[in-house]
Write a structure and sequence with these properties.
Length: about 375
């Protein structure tokens, strides 16, 4: 380790006086099993993986160097038999230190330091979420797992997940204009609350705002705002399982509370949630309440079989177009299962309710 620190210090001194745009990557590998393995510096594009440079691990070390005046997103990739370790890295001028443990750690330049700190923060939060999830799984089949206990654990989980969103929002706001931050935002930006998303987008420069990711999330924010609580529903025109034309407006604004349920037969959490939906439908179907399901299935046969298997006796519609379905875009659906609750006039009164939250809301409006 002393040798490692000495070499890193030497590189930092060298790069402070060498030519403009010079970068160097020095890597240390802790496992002897990795000796002699190939390390790649790659880019991902529409054509697939572009291997830009490669070297071998020797005496637990490897290195790359070159010129990179404009920071660009690359990946360090290490292949070891049938397994592969991969880590995003912002190639920018300076000395970059890569440590390969069970995962890959990257430090040395401001953007890579910020990303490493963010990943560690997210991992710590995920560990806490796993603890709560384990509690729920361990207790849910016991006599002591009451609705009150379930609500307590769900509240604990939601509080931790709020921290996760805040971690996302903080990192994205500070790093949206570097390729590493923008790439991460492209994957996880949909998890932000609308207010957080608006702040992040406001920090983007012109190149970001006119790029693919910036345009996608601006359209998403517009959709969220158009279908927010207090807004009138946006119509969905689709087909029922028999192939007949069907519209959300056939049901919305017709004097009943309407729950629009986004689901799919391939979605495990949707199938787990469906008994709750069946229970609620049986309880409230005669009290000015209706459900309309919209499926994100890709196969019509799987969709119709899912309807039958899950005892979904309410109206259904789908374009059988997976996440590319227009209603998913128009309602900015972040995940499934996902619900939109409309009042009898067709105004949105809640979004994203499932489980006990949905039960409580329906009990409130249909009492």
């Amino acid at each position: 380790m002393k040798r490692f620190i000495f070499l890193v210090s030497l590189i930092l001194i060298c790069f402070s006086c060498e030519q403009k745009g010079k970068y160097g990557i020095i890597g240390v590998v802790t496992s002897s099993d990795m000796e002699g393995k190939q390390v790649y510096l790659v880019k991902y594009n529409d054509a697939g993986v572009e291997k830009c440079d490669s070297t071998r691990i020797k005496d637990s070390w490897f290195s790359f160097e070159g010129i990179q005046e404009i920071p660009e997103l690359y990946y360090i990739r290490v292949e070891n038999g049938n397994t592969m370790k991969k880590r995003a890295i912002l190639l920018e001028p300076g000395a970059i230190v890569v440590t390969i443990l069970d995962n890959i750690i990257v430090n040395g330049t401001p953007a890579n330091d910020a990303y490493q700190q963010y990943l560690e923060e997210q991992a710590s939060i995920d560990d806490r979420l796993d603890v709560v999830s384990t509690k729920i799984e361990a207790e849910q089949d016991t006599e002591t797992f009451t609705e009150e206990r379930e609500a307590e654990l769900n509240k604990e989980y939601d509080a931790i997940y709020k921290e996760k969103r805040e971690s996302y929002a903080g990192y994205f706001s500070e790093n949206i204009n570097n390729p590493l931050g923008a790439e991460e935002f492209g994957v996880y930006g949909r998890r932000l609350e609308p207010e957080q998303l608006a702040v992040v987008l406001s920090k983007g420069n012109e190149a970001f705002k006119t790029g693919k990711i910036g345009i996608f999330y601006q359209e998403r924010l517009d959709a969220v705002q158009k279908t927010a609580v207090g807004q009138q529903f946006v119509d969905i025109i689709s087909k029922d399982p028999s192939g007949n034309a069907i519209s959300l407006s056939d049901y919305a604004g017709k004097g009943k509370y309407l729950l629009v349920d986004f689901w799919a037969s391939w979605c495990g959490p949707c199938r787990k949630e469906m008994p709750v939906m069946v229970e609620l439908y049986q309880k409230y179907k005669y009290k000015k309440f209706e459900i309309v399901g919209y499926s994100l299935d890709r196969n019509a046969a799987a969709w119709t079989k899912g309807i039958e298997d899950l005892n979904m006796v309410w109206p259904q519609m789908s374009d059988v177009n997976f996440w590319q379905s227009e209603p998913v875009k128009n309602y900015a659906v972040p995940h499934i299962p996902y619900t939109i609750l409309l009042d009898p006039s067709g105004t949105v009164i809640a979004r994203g309710l499932v489980g006990n939250e949905l039960k409580n809301k329906l009990e409130e409006v249909l009492k």
